[in-house]
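Q: Given only this backbone (324 positions), what sequence would you predict?
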């Protein structure tokens, strides 16, 4: 069976290996250059005591950076080209019957085919994710944005979970519909829907966020690559909803209480901020600390691996019951 899997899937495996090799060379070469450039610039700016321009250090790497961002689509590609046709094509063309009449049980046939394809998926996704995570190191240090969705989703271990889920979804869709085109459609739509559901509805609630309050006249920014969920202005310990003259503080507009309206007429806003602070007004920011990055990665990967396992179990149940 292993030899048969290799014979039937060798084209896909060889193409994937070639693309992975080319991507590895590109990221290794440009990654070493970026790391050297970052270390040199950091040493120079520390000596000059001015590192404010480092954030634009890698503006010349947009082409490779765009390619790195595109790796977010790798799980969907694997699901469409490896998962959906794996069983659907066999059932559609009837070639599965040949294997089942050669002393190979349905259970062994399904287990070997899915086992090898899932192992190849984990290896491929893990290799790409490791390369992207390493390559993004200097950018993560500068931008402090690896908790943002478009960065979180292509680094660490979550791409492996996404890929296993996408391939398992394709396999299950192929078993249920027994046709390649419907399996492709279900894989594309289902994977996109689940990913969006997890990103926008589940991920913000993996762990309770931290809320910090601070004086309006000062500023506060969570350390490291924290994920800022929301920010606002609190009045006397609760969101202020009164009426009267208003002022804008950042992206928030708040009414000015009567006791502070005189201070609002003074030049600048120092006296106004002091007055608002004296009467209970505070700025607030709610965020997930940077230290929770790997905890979030583990939780999300676990969700998608569990979904993948459930889909494989469903596919096995349907195949063995319906085609027995």
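A: Predicted residues:
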């Amino acid at each position: 069976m292993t030899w048969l899997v290799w014979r039937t899937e060798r084209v896909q495996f060889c193409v994937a290996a070639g693309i992975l090799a080319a991507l590895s060379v590109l990221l290794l070469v440009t990654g070493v250059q970026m790391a050297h450039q970052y270390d040199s610039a950091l040493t120079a700016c520390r000596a000059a005591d001015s590192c404010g321009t480092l954030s634009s250090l890698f503006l010349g790497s947009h082409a490779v950076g765009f390619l790195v961002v595109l790796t977010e689509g790798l799980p969907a590609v694997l699901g469409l080209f490896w998962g959906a046709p794996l069983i659907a094509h066999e059932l559609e063309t009837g070639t599965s019957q040949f294997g089942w009449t050669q002393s190979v049980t349905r259970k062994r046939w399904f287990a070997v085919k899915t086992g090898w394809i899932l192992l190849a998926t984990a290896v491929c996704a893990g290799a790409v994710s490791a390369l992207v995570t390493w390559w993004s190191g200097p950018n993560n240090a500068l931008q402090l944005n690896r908790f943002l969705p478009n960065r979180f989703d292509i680094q660490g271990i979550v791409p492996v979970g996404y890929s296993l889920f996408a391939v398992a979804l394709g396999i299950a869709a192929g078993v249920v519909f027994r046709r390649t085109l419907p399996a492709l459609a279900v894989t594309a739509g289902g994977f996109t829907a689940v990913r969006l559901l997890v990103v926008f509805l589940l991920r913000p609630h993996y762990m309770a966020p931290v809320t910090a309050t601070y004086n309006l006249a000062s500023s506060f920014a969570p350390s490291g690559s924290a994920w800022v969920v929301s920010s606002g202005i609190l009045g006397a310990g609760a969101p202020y909803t009164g009426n009267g003259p208003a002022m804008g503080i950042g992206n928030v507009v708040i009414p000015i209480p009567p006791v502070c309206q005189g201070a609002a007429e003074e030049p600048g806003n120092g006296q106004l901020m002091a007055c608002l602070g004296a009467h209970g007004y505070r700025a607030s920011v709610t965020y997930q600390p940077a230290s929770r990055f790997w905890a979030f990665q583990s939780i999300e990967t676990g969700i998608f691996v569990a979904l993948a396992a459930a889909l494989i179990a469903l596919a096995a149940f349907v195949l063995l019951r319906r085609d027995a």
